[in-house]
From TrEMBL:
Organism the protein comes from: Paenibacillus gyeongsangnamensis
Taxon lineage: Bacteria, Bacillati, Bacillota, Bacilli, Bacillales
Domain Hflx-type G: 209-373
Gene: hflX
Database matches in NCBIfam families: GTP_HflX (TIGR03156)
Record-given protein name: GTPase HflX
Coiled coil: 168-195
Alphabetized Gene3D superfamilies for the sequence: 6.10.250.2860, GTPase HflX, N-terminal domain, P-loop containing nucleotide triphosphate hydrolases
Signal sequence residues: none
Length: 444
């Protein structure tokens, strides 16, 4: 076959051959499926605006330290690149700087790995100051130890994937300059984290119930937020359509308002540098009163996606939070498949586009917010505690007995503890001032 040659021009679209190496170690990993991982890499490449021309898979006991896929397979890859006219090779696994340098010199095309591709997509989606800082920090942290392996990438005309975000000029400077830039970004990010923590503290003090939507990328979290709150939220059927966290107020049937936050989607092999940089954003899940784990019921790899989300939540320390699984997109599933959707703990099967399902979600949130029926005995002079009862709970009955007010209230455990703490503090003050001991609270 005659080999075609294609000159790379500034306006050339990225045309890529995708490469996957399946090692014995990967085969032993619980969440890894080579075919699904490669299919996901294709979607990631298309999301980044790359035209995928071909795929190549290699099985080896372990990665080759010089060529990653081995010299023989590298020769086959070179032939594929020339035959298809591709100007980029994208690898499904992370490469070292030396491997990038060796492959780039031999193949004479741009070399990108899965981590860099994901970082590039994030760079294109970041819109807020926080998002831009986090992406640049993740990119620089990833590229710093690999600078020697990206020489031709950075000088190659055309820009495109692998060069967005920090930009070529920053990455071509010496390591000391990049380390200084990383230190500056960390300082800026710590300031952002401080502001975000203050906002969270304010929300806690007001007693607002907080819900975090988490899930695999493209599970429908943004759609669910938009349908529930009628918010102006960007929705698109693509990976990582939402990058920056979005919080909206949701009014429940009984009139109470809660805050719902849509977080960045998770994915297999989410880059560690990205998880570290986005920890401030992902902390929204850790600080929430309730996590809604949104699942794409129509995905063939649903079980793997759910395990990946569990793994990331565990890394964040949010694995033990109160959680409800929302099996979304059931309108895309056959009835027999829908009937088999179950999860540990509470779960709902819904379509974000069905009004009756949205009502069911709101009713579930209300039951989580309002909690159980409790009875409180509160001294009549404690107006601040009585005010708190009306603010955080649903007063079902009230009356007077002696000098105390009796309330039957529907309230969740968190708010119940808050009321109990105030009453305990009041009782301690009473005893310290010489009043007789008495029952100040009776809860059922």
């Amino acid at each position: 076959m005659k080999r075609a040659t294609h000159e790379v021009t500034p306006d050339a679209q990225e045309r890529a051959v995708l490469v996957s190496l399946v090692t014995q170690q990967l085969k032993r990993e619980e969440y890894y499926d080579p075919e699904y991982s490669l299919a996901e890499l294709i979607r990631l490449a298309e999301t980044a605006g790359v035209e995928v021309l071909d795929t190549l898979t290699q099985s080896k006991e372990y990665a080759d330290s010089k060529w990653f896929i081995g010299k023989g397979k590298a020769e086959e890859l070179k032939q594929r690149l020339e035959e298809t006219g591709a100007n980029t090779a994208i690898f499904d696994q992370e490469l070292s700087g030396a491997q990038v340098r060796n492959l780039e010199m031999y193949l004479d095309v741009k070399i990108i790995d899965r981590t860099q591709l994901i970082l590039d997509i994030f760079a294109g989606r970041a819109k807020t100051r926080e998002g831009i800082i986090q992406v640049e920090l993740a990119q620089l942290s990833y590229l710093l130890p690999r600078l020697s392996g990206h020489g031709k990438n950075l000088s190659r005309l055309g820009g495109g994937i692998g060069t967005r975000g920090p930009g070529e000029s920053k990455l071509e400077t010496d390591r000391r300059h990049i380390r200084n830039r990383i230190d500056e970004l960390k300082r800026q990010l710590s300031e952002v984290v401080r502001h975000r923590s203050l906002h969270r503290e304010r929300r806690k003090k007001t007693g607002v119930f907080q819900v975090a939507l988490v899930g695999y990328t493209n599970a429908g979290k943004s759609t669910l937020l938009k349908q529930l709150t009628q918010a102006d939220v960007f929705v698109e059927n693509q990976l990582f359509a939402t990058l920056d966290p979005t919080s909206r107020t949701l009014k429940l049937p009984a009139g109470k308002e809660i805050v719902v936050t849509d977080t960045v989607g998770f994915i297999q092999n989410l880059p560690h540098d990205l998880v570290a940089a986005f920890r401030a954003t992902l902390e929204e899940a850790n600080e929430a009163d309730l996590i809604l784990h949104v699942v794409d019921s129509s995905s063939e790899m649903m079980s793997i996606q759910m395990k990946v989300v569990d793994q990331v939540l565990e890394e964040l320390g949010a694995h033990g939070k109160d959680r409800v699984t929302i099996f979304n997109k059931i309108d895309l599933c056959p009835p027999e498949q829908t009937d088999m959707l179950t999860a540990e703990g509470e779960y709902l099967r819904v379509s974000a586009y069905r009004e009756e399902d949205l009502v069911r979600i709101k009713e579930l949130l209300e039951s989580k917010l309002m909690g159980d029926n409790r009875t409180f005995r509160i001294p009549a002079e404690k107006g601040d505690v009585i005010s708190l009862v009306y603010r955080v709970g649903e007063v079902l009955e009230n009356g007077v007995e002696g000098g105390d007010m009796l309330f039957k209230v529907r309230v969740n455990n968190k708010e119940f503890d808050k009321i109990g703490y105030m009453l305990a503090a009041y009782e301690s003050a009473r005893q310290a001032s010489g009043h007789a001991e008495g029952e100040t609270t009776d809860h059922v």
